[in-house]
Amino acid sequence: MTIELRRFASLRKHLPPGSPRGKCSLDLPDGATVGAVWAQVHSPLANAHMINSEHDREVERALADGDVLSVFPPVAGG
Question: Which domains does the chain have, with CATH numbers?
Answer without folding.
Answer: 45-78 (3.10.20.30)
